[in-house]
Amino acid sequence: MLLIDGATYLSNAQITAPGSEPVTLAEAKAHSRIDTTADDTIIASQLLAAREYIEALIKGPLIQRSYRLRLDCFPSGNTLMLPGYPVVSVTAIRYIDNTGTQQTMSSGLYSLNADQSPCRVALNRSSVAWPGVYVSEGLWSVEVEYIAGYANAAAVPQALKQAMLLVFGHWYDNARETASPENLREVPHAVDTLCKTFVRTRWWV
To answer: Contact 70/82 with Cβ under 8 angstroms?
Structure first.
């Protein structure tokens, strides 16, 4: 949990899976010069793990999916920060009003600033303040559903896809041998180099 501008960020849950992967099975096999189909299931599993590894490293999703951010109240200022990058759109902002009834905030009252990192939802000039909410310690009163990530594999920066391939190749090659757990946990130093320019001011709840 994080406390920012008087609001406690309780959780940030992925609610849909990515529709595709940044690196295909064929690309991974070509990278590691694998010419058999015997390990296709293992390769697909390791590619998924490699994508998750890179996402954890840069603290953001590679391929678009939906998230649900929950807070105990609205921030004291006029902006609400969203974890991850890039944020594509805000689907809805819901809140529990002072009577305990769930409401959906009009999309005309706020706008998304996707150029900043972290991305932010800001009240429009016509909006005086965030709506009043029913606050109960440890429980959510504000819910933001949003979409984050690159649109498709073609939109994912090549450096991040190369980092994925390096992680996959390292795991695949070592898994075929009698590798120590420590060796499997380590990845080539080039992975950090490829990813470091994408680790901006981001955070994860």
So the answer is: no
How many residues are given for the chain?
205
Positions in the chain whose pLDDT score sits under 70: 176-185, 200-205
Convert the pLDDT of each residue in 46-78 to its tens digit. 999 999 999 999 989 999 999 999 999 999 999
**What span, in angstroms and rounded, lies between the C-alpha atoms of 189 and 21?**
23
Determine the Cα–Cα distance for residues 94 and 23; give it in Å rounded to an integer.
Answer: 35
Burial class (CB in 10 A: 0-12, 13-18, 19+), 157: middle
Cis peptide before 75 (omega within 30 of 0): no
Query: pLDDT, tens digit, for every residue of 9-25?
Result: 999 999 999 999 999 99
Rg of the chain in Å (alpha carbons)? 20
Centroid of chain to Cα 27: 23
